[in-house]
## 1
Amino acid sequence: MQLETYDPESATYYDELFEAVGKPRPAAVPLLEWMQGLNPKELQQHHQTAQIALFKLGVTFNVYSDTQGVERVLPFDIIPRIISAEDWQWLEQGLKQRITALNLFLNDIYHDQKIVQDGKVPAEIIQSAPGFLPPCQGLEPPTGVWCHITGTDLVRDRNGQWYVLEDNLRVPSGISYVLENRRVMKSTLPKIFQNLAIQPVDDYPSHLLEALLNLAPPYLQTPTVAVLTPGIYNSAYFEHSFLAQQMGVELVEGRDLVVVDGYLQMKTTKGLRRVDVLYRRVDDTFLDPLTFRPDSLLGVPGLMEVYRAGRVALANAPGTGVADDKVVYAYVPEMIRYYLNEDPILANVPTYLCWQEKDRDYVLQNLDKLVVKAANEAGGYGMLVGTQASQTEREIFAKKIEANPRNYIAQPTLCLSRVPTLIEDRIEGRHVDLRPYILHRGDEIYVHPGGLTRVALRKGSLVVNSSQGGGSKDTWVLTP
């Protein structure tokens, strides 16, 4: 196996499995000892078997920029990413702290806005955020929780230091890949799971269902839960249907729902049936054409009125998108200090705010060294990696920043950690990030072990998004 000669380039990168050539990290030793018993052809066969299994399972996604509208299988790499029990316990604490502060922030800005009055977050940043929705002011979500399901993107730098790259609080996707990747790995390589103490991930749907049922009024003995999807053309439709099936609840579109007698009702072959909890995978402004976008055909007219009256629970609560804003992200460490009186456990990536003149001047003078991101884009879109961009591309982005400085942030180009990855018939290091999933029930916060490891399959690329050619790996969190 090529692992004996694999060069992690430890002077330049932090490798998740190797400290140096021929020297695996302690947590990776059992895996690598087992892999050394395979020849390259066997590993490739396992890799191909896993990819075929994912295709047969229907684990696909759509790329909106693809004019052919072809569903694609997310590329999967057979070599997993391993996280030690000690690392994971520390990450878990940091994620719980961060989500607690973000929830308090959301509740605050839709009520008294004390953090703004005390000068910790500028009022203009909140008011200009596309995700800040004035119709949500004064809302009282069930159990006081706004962000029930969160996907937080983490990266490691060349020194192995963890950073939060961004927060995803509206409709974070990707958990279905976590579950199906593990399912395929266990069927393809069953023996390794007998020899390693790896934390399970297949109980996520039961944790999610428990969190959703927790939102229903306690007097309801058998509340009805449904998953609201935009429909089959949405890029994450596989995940919507998968989660509904795994939880044993209905998958509905806006056209399947109606407000009657002050309640949200689902159309069935036996008549209308009341829906008590809606896990919505539709963006905020498409939820209710009477409250938000009048041209929306994806939502339900009158839904927000029912929600305000406390007759239906929504997860996540409308309005959470303001915390997805990459400019607001820069203030999360201050939120933690303000609301919790604690120092942040997990650090942000150092961030330059282009709406501030001093930061903007620095960014414009150093575009060749920075990563520039649009404040409300996702999927790797609206981004400039200055070290890999042409002079023309940098000039175009400079004009965008000058025209709308509020819409851009910039960060130093982190040298993301790498994991050995099977590239055709050889093993090479590829950059990765990690998206753990966090469920906030009100009385407790649950962090699902591991998460989605996304890998940039193109050599030298730092962009891990599936829409930009990235793939995924199984993430193994070892038990204490």
Note: The mean pLDDT is 92.
## 2
Amino acid sequence: MVYIINRMTKKRIVLLSAVLLSGINLKAQTYKPEFDKLLVNAKQGTIVELPGFLSEKLPEIPYDKMILPGPQFIISDDPEYIRVPEGISLREKVQPGAVRLYMYNVNGVKEPQKMDRKITALIRNTGKSVLHIRMLKYSSQKPSGNYFQIGKQGLADYFASKGDEKIREIKPGQALPIDEKLEKNIVKYDELAHGFYEFTVDQPAEITILQTDPATPGVKALERVTNILPPKGESGAGRGIYGVSNYLLRNKGVFDTQNGPSAITVAEGVKDNWVLGWESSRNQQAKLVGNYGVMYNMEIKWKSTNGKGLALVTWNGRSADSKWCNGMAATMVVSKGLFKEGIIQLPSDRLITRSAPESILIQVFPPAANGEEQTIKLTYSPPGASCLPTPLILIPVDMK
């Protein structure tokens, strides 16, 4: 079994082996009937211990995946740790239309000494007319060394955001901060600056992420800073601009509860390939290892021919493979079941889940009275700071 481990980053990535994802139904561990009561009676998002059951060897549910129309997608996460006092971590051009920007950068300055920094995002109008920018979704966290909390809360805020009707104007050749909070935040050594934005522009523009001293306005730093830092590769998921930002995923056929527990696994880099884009500073193709910031809109068809309901859980499946995978935290949007439809942080009763036998209850779905087909709808994006993949396990449960 071969694992690829990104050892240098706190956004840990571990890939499942091709053997486990080959479609072979290996014998899973034992599911005990008493687990039904634990899952059905648990609160949504809480950890439920299932000793002897959680395994990567569960049968995998095959699925079809389609690219959905979406915004131009930019990510700044390579170098993840900005080691110099002042420098540019990303610079990319965008065309008029919608843009998604995901910033995941850490103040890594140790020489000549550890120092407070500012990490900010700027947009410059490269067109010939006034640029109008309007925020569609906004997620901005205070810098912190608690990467798990930032990754989990960042997704929750993004999913909940309704945007802003305010339209800002930028004259040709001029620039302004994309997020005013970043201009005010002080990022201490080893703290993460994290922003997740979606906005529209009506002129060509240039996006820059840079680190500078806290007293210098980002626009001023943009005038003097010219060094685009080389990517580090081993310490970040990637950087650049990507044409894929949204997926629609549907399981093949209809999952039947009589078939027993099964799993759907995405963002593992084997069956679900990493998206490709372009990194302008080197003028070459880029790969987004982890598909962070990509939205998976999932539709899981299921039915119950044996009268059982369906519990949907996840777990930290890579915890046994490396010291880097000691925690997982995620956020998803899930359709109605025993609990109302909406955003759920996983886990909801603590910061992270660590390893088996811990599972996290996402939702419980009652069977239809006549056994007819139902559809689970789920929005998922790979959670920053956590190990990947995030397996989804469908468990038939007796709800009586």
Note: The chain has a mean pLDDT of 92.
## 3
Amino acid sequence: MLLHRNDRACQAKGFYTYDAFIAAANSFPGFGAIGSADVQKREVAAFLAQTSHETTGGWATAPDGPYSWPCTPGKKYYGRGPIQLSHNYNYGPAGLAIGVDLLENPDLVASDPIVAFKTALWFWMTPQAPKPSIHAVSTGQWSPSAADAAAGRMPGFGVITNIINGGLECGHGQDSHVADRIGFYKRYCDILGVGYDDNLDCYNQKPFS
């Protein structure tokens, strides 16, 4: 499924392994295990699609406030791992959830493949208000509110993209990044033999506030 992950030209050659993915997923037993077989396959396809896109290549409304996750001096919390975990307000809660100090050592996300996948799955499974968890969207457990419906946010792969990077990619018509994510999703759905379902893009969805 990940055809070129071990190519010589790949900077992460040998890093993203099946065993590391399974070991990390075992820490999140709901992932890929809720609903019908088709729902489970679509969730895995969506995860692989979003992480494939992200690996190609504290603001004022941060959870618990902008000062809840102070930076460790000299540390930089830029994007790392399959879902490009970024910012200290993500590294702090993710580290607490998986039992490692990512504020002190954010490079673990780039050097330990199990930690890397765990951070991606933490982001996937954890709601960050006002956004639902991606897992809830993927498994049909999220129902859009009236405000969501008015903003065009309906269940589907498009809302997942909105959760991950809606502020930059959603709500302004065609976007090449959104199209790239959809392309990956269709490929993985085809491999797994499952339909794509509805609402694949977020071109006309307002980002979550």
Note: The mean pLDDT is 91.
## 4
Amino acid sequence: MVGITSCEVTDLQPANIIPDAEAFADANRINAAVLGIYESAQRGFYLGAVQRGYPFGAASTQQGDMKGEDMYNDQLFYEVTYTNAQNPQTANNNGQWISLYRMINRANFVIENLDEALSSGVLTQAQRDGYRGEALFLRALAHHELVLYFSRPYSDNPTAMGIPYRTFAINDVAKVEPGEAVGRGTVQEVYDQLLSDLNEAEEILPAAGNAFRGRKASAIALKARVKLHMEDWAGVLAEHTKLSANFAVTPNPLTPFRGGTSSDNIFSFENTDASNAGVNGALANMYGNPNLGSRGLVKISPIIWRADFWLPGDARRSLRGESDGFVSQGPLGMFTNKYIDNTTFSDNTVIIRFAEIVLAAAESNARLGNTAAAVELLNSVRDRAIPATASSFVAGNFASTDALIEAIINERRIEFLAEGRRWTDIHRLSGEGRMAGIPAKATSRSINNINFYTTDRAIPTDHSLSYSDNLFIWPIPLVEILTNNTSPIPQNPGY
């Protein structure tokens, strides 16, 4: 906050001990409080410390990848998630829960104090609306992550147990008991509140801005993601239409990862050399090639690298060499090159891209029987990457609607590789019955040679998980249940 307040006076009082009345009595401090929500998302909280990449840094990206089969766990760091070995006391899932609710509480604190600042003349109506819209958007983003990891999918049973949707701040002892009384509700109730938050955010957020702060497009894009999980296909198309005039996939698929301000970037968390999630929360450090100085905890799995649907000449397979590329090859395997700064950790955490909304619209059109529109949208993402010797898809390439949907899902697997999006598709598609659960993965710590990628050497597999298994979703942290003295929430069955 010191860097945001007036340059005329240096305020050395720590932000966390400024009284509420003072924090919202000055426009600069209010902006700092809003930025504090972003900070809690970017840097997070883990075992009592910040700068570990929870809930929206490298840690959460890896969680989404390690729950799936397309990225590979190479070391112990995320083995709990990769092998489905979590319990109510394991740090990975607990860190995500605690960090997300920490972020939510900051958002609620801002929301509750804005109207007083408006009535006292500290903020204009436009400023109040913008800040409230940002806080609502970020609150919804956090709650959606929670319901995807800790609840069964909407596509299976909207009446299943949801997660506590917190809409007021707990910043006083008197609010602890009411906070504890917020129950899990149902998945339907969570999604209803998500849409309520996002609809209001869309109405009051400014259209102008960039990808690093919430704007109207951010709320619209998140609504499209939410509606995809709700199987509201017409709703997805409506949100896509709102965005299509102002956003476009980039001709070079690597562009969204080289600065974060392209036509494809709708919302990202910004990292700089002065403000980032630290060595253990940096995407380039976790995902990068050890030969280039990174830790290399996570690499591309040979399962997707050798998949028939990923054409050999696809630009998203291009190797890093004298010029930039998507993939960095080493003796241990293939590592993503989407993230490259393993020195100052300035790679942004890309949260929502227009390419995601395009493929969601493609799938929605396919579900509604609009085959031509679905194929056109699918090609708009695929064609910019495939080699000149390959052909665009046509409707005749697909024997059935299911085959078209499968091609769109496979395109999502390629396009969002190493972005943490695989779990969300496994979650919703398993709930629908289109997938049987978590597919088999390459056995942890077994892929130790590049020839798993470049030859037909057998890939050892393990760690598949049936959708019916209680381990499919994460447990509520034991500390959450034990410290709730008045209204403990129920644990997920089987834990």
Note: The CA atoms of residues 158 and 188 lie 5 Å apart.
